[in-house]
Design a protein that fits this description.
alpha+beta; four-stranded antiparallel sheet; single chain
Amino acid sequence: MSKITRWEPINELVSMRRDMDRMFDDFFTRPMASQSGWNLPTMDMYQTDDDVVVKATIPGISPDDLDIQITGDTLTIRGEINQEETEENAKYHIRERHYQSFSRSLTLPALVVSDKADAQINNGVLTLTLPKAEEVKPKVICVKAK
């Protein structure tokens, strides 16, 4: 015996609405997602007892093309990948490399001393080491017994 199920058009609309909401949420909440699909820079941030460390993947960028600023508790990394000269007599078969500027801001988890920050690029990875301010470093309190 077959079972007849009543069709509820409102359920179809609710499902479609949920899918559209998820699509828009994914589009607008991904960091630095451009329409070309180029995501730059991806970052890791962690802290130790003494430092806040930020690592950003920024291939093809020279140190001269980077601008790193700390304002209050916000770290901002800006950069630009410049377009190389094109060959005048060349006929390109594929041209997929992107040339554009980017900017990414992060809220730092602790106060840092920006004057003592260290920034290095190695194999396309920018490593920022930001020393924590003395007032936020963990303090050890010795307990004396009487």
